[in-house]
Amino acid sequence: MSSVLKADRALLHWRAMRSLGDAGLAEQAVQETLLRAWRACARFDASKGSVRTWLLAIQRNVLIDMGRARAARPVDAEWSEHGELIDMRHASPDFADGLIDGLVVDDLLARLPRVQREAVTEVILRDRAYREVAAELGVPVGTVKTRVYYALQALRRLPLAA
């Protein structure tokens, strides 16, 4: 299972950065996800999905928990600092981290056939509906679903470093 976790760590970190916008919190979310997975590994059921899908579901719960905890925690600041704190909460992730994550994703996507890369980019990265992407590409919805499925299968088998 450790090889699976190593391969999925970059994806977990990328999703956490996208959700939390902070490298430290993203790393904390990844660690918590892996800890919860380790504690629950006896309950993993391969018939319900892949390890990656299971990890992403665990991470979704971790991100929700972290978001709720951050929202419930009172802000300890002077009134004059309140505006600055609001700006910081909506700040974008560190440029270098975003660039590295983007390069990892770009490198992995570049290894896919063009039609699969287009489908994954539109459906997964741009979070568009299969039906919308199918209409744009002029192919049946099932074709887009198949392309995404096989692309994700191929990505799971690829090493993170070329």
CATH architecture of the largest domain: Orthogonal Bundle
What is the CATH topology of the largest domain? Answer: Rna Polymerase Sigma Factor, Chain: A
Would you list the SSEs in sequence order as H and E?
HHHHHHHH
Strand count, sense and barrel status of the largest sheet are: none
Rg: 18 Å
Give the end-to-end Cα distance, rounded to a whole number of Å: 21 Å
Mean pLDDT: 76
Oligomer: single chain
* Separate helix tally: 8
Instruction: Please indicate the percent range of residues in DSSP E strands (runs of 2 or more).
Output: under 5%
User: Could you say which structural class the secondary elements and strand pairing correspond to?
Assistant: mainly alpha
Question: What ranges have pLDDT less than 50 throughout 5 or more consecutive residues?
Answer: 77-91
- Percent of residues in helices: over 70%
Tell the overall outline.
globular
Q: CATH class of the largest domain, anyone?
A: Mainly Alpha
CATH superfamily of the largest domain: RNA polymerase sigma factor, region 2, helix turn helix motif
Number of domains: 2
- Number of extended strands: 0
